[in-house]
Design goal:
Radius of gyration: 14 Å
CATH architecture: 3-Layer(aba) Sandwich
Helix content: 25-40%
Number of strands: 6
Oligomer: single chain
Number of domains: 1
Structural class: alpha/beta
Length: 160
């Protein structure tokens, strides 16, 4: 069986762990628990095993995170649609991934927490502008209600 390593990248509390729990286990956990270092999940999809590496988004784990980038096949770059700073920091995450893996790493951008419609501050035009700079696809997701979660992981799997 072919195995593909996918990184989940983005600031703390943007919903990376919730997205992977929704995808792998089909559930949403209300309680927030910060990832320390890395948590690894796997799911078999169409004859391939997706190894999903959920990396801590906390700034003080940057030196630890760099060790986990090796041999990655792709990344999901996650930000919180209700948090401008998490979107503004995407460039930092791209830089970190490129330094750790290489400039040809395929990425898909996920704007998470679409279920909080009244609180969204990030405009589609801004996401389009950022994603088009890199020719990456982007999706709006909700780990809470499952919107586009399956599609997000399928999209990155297809470009690997």
């Amino acid at each position: 069986m072919v195995s593909k390593k996918i990184l989940l990248l983005g600031d703390g509390a943007v919903g990376k762990t919730s997205l992977v729990h929704r995808y792998v286990e089909g559930q949403f956990k209300e309680r927030y628990k910060a990832t320390i270092g890395v948590d690894i999940f796997s799911k078999n999809v169409g004859g391939a095993e997706l190894q999903i590496w959920d990396l801590s988004g906390q700034e003080h784990f940057v030196s630890v995170r760099s060790k986990f980038y090796s041999k990655s096949d792709g990344a999901l770059l996650v930000f919180d649609l209700t948090n401008q700073k998490s979107f503004d920091n995407l460039g930092t995450w791209v830089k970190e991934a490129v330094e750790g893996v290489g400039s040809d790493i395929p990425m898909v951008i996920l704007g998470n927490k679409i279920d909080l419609a009244d609180l969204i501050v990030i405009k589609d035009d801004d996401i389009n502008e950022f994603s088009s700079q890199h020719s990456w696809k982007w999706l709006k997701t909700s780990a809470k209600n499952g919107t586009s979660v399956e599609e997000a992981f399928t999209t990155i799997a297809k470009v690997l």
